[in-house]
Specification:
The chain has 125 residues and is an alpha/beta fold. It is built from 2 helices and 8 strands; from the N terminus they run E-H-E-E-E-E-H-E-E-E.
Length: 125
């Protein structure tokens, strides 16, 4: 039997329908910073400790975004969830679930990919 290799995560790729629109969201709204890419057409960014690549190969957006959809969910943290909610609402970001007891909310990126946003000291994990 072949022994299991050691796997380690390095980044997450987010498929998008409109690369420039996704770049504006992740950079201008969330504050990601551009980093050099791999030369295959993806845009690469750092958002906190996470490396994100945006791959412009999605044929359509998620029609009904939500936490119950398959696929990865970005987990972001902020110091003040209420302020983050107000800011994202002003920016026109789709709020799927407003701030809830327990210190989190759910929003969608321009293609409907879900992002969980937690108030930094509210997690119990």
């Amino acid at each position: 039997m072949t022994p299991r290799p050691e796997f380690s995560a390095t980044s997450i790729t987010i498929n998008c329908t409109d690369q420039r629109r996704a770049e504006r969201f992740y950079c201008d709204v969330l504050g990601a910073t551009s980093i050099p890419g791999d030369g295959y057409g993806c845009s690469w960014f750092r958002l906190g400790a996470l490396t994100i690549s945006l791959m412009p190969n999605a044929v359509e957006s998620i029609r009904n975004p939500g936490i119950d959809r398959p696929g990865p969910k970005l987990w972001l943290e902020v110091e003040d969830l209420t302020r983050a909610h107000d800011y994202l609402k002003e920016k026109g970001v789709t709020i799927l679930e407003p701030p809830a007891e327990g210190g989190h909310m759910l929003v969608a990126d321009p293609d409907g990919s879900a992002l969980e946003i937690w108030e930094r000291d509210s997690q119990t994990n």
